[in-house]
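Kindly inspect the following:
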Amino acid sequence: MNARVVLVAVMALGGVATLRAQTIQNPTLRRAQQAFDNLDYRQALSAGQAALRERLTGFERARAYELLGFTYSGMDSILKAVDAFKQVVLLEPERTLDPNRTSPKALSAFQVALTQVLVVRQLVVDSVTFVGGQGVVPLRYTVTQPARVVTRVVGGSTSLRIDSTVANGQVNLRWPARLPNGDPVPAGNYTIVVDATVGQNSFSTSQPIRVSHGSVDTLAHLTSLPGYTYLPETEVPPKSWRPMGLALVYTGIALAGTSALSNGDLGSASLREGGTIGAGIVLAGFIMTLKKPAPQPARGNILYNQLLRDQITRRNAEIAQENTRRRQQVALTVAALPRSSR
């Protein structure tokens, strides 16, 4: 056996490594697998075909056809390999081959087989949470041939058409999860069903999902506006030297009057009394100057605070209306469920 055949066989062995992921109970199929592992293609073909005539589980039957597909690829019988892989796809539509562990011939035959049978594969429904009427549920699938594809959601008494189109390859859809009247779909378990039809051929696949309802979060009322703060409504005026100035003026007047009187008949006694009075006036003026001024209303700040309170009141009224609307809404959570085993 030349090196090229050995290389193809080794890569094919990587492709069928998943055969050992589940136990094969049928002894004939196990002999076929052993022969393939030993690169005895004729024995592998003989035992594999014999196994298909026996009673096999669905898993074993798919593995038998897959083994034949790899064997035919190793023997350069590409058309027979394609026919074998077609049966694998029909039995297990989600089957894929690892391109890093599969020979190019086997991988090419498998890809050709996909285009020759009608199947819908890789149906995926993303799990999402959104407010009813404000979001969508993304879902996608792949159809292997041009076909009329109808996507529906069914559950209980509900049956809604999501989409109907002629498609080939990957299809991406967005389901708003709403009834015809616009209401969110009721909570419960549903099934996304994809039906593909070409002439007399048809194929259907499905994905169970669960729709849950929840309450929508409400907004908190405001006590302040971001970036704005209340200002003090009173302010202390700066110290004034006016009392001291008035005291000095009055003292000067008193001393002048006393001096005028001292030139008359009253004598020096009046001058001393005038000095005493003047000193008292200056002391009183100095004390009044040092005294902290009483707070005064800040009219500009009062107007600013009133405008800020009015703005917060208006915004809280809008929040109250928004919360009333939100309490009437429904938060939808859509989650894909595990598929039942075939």
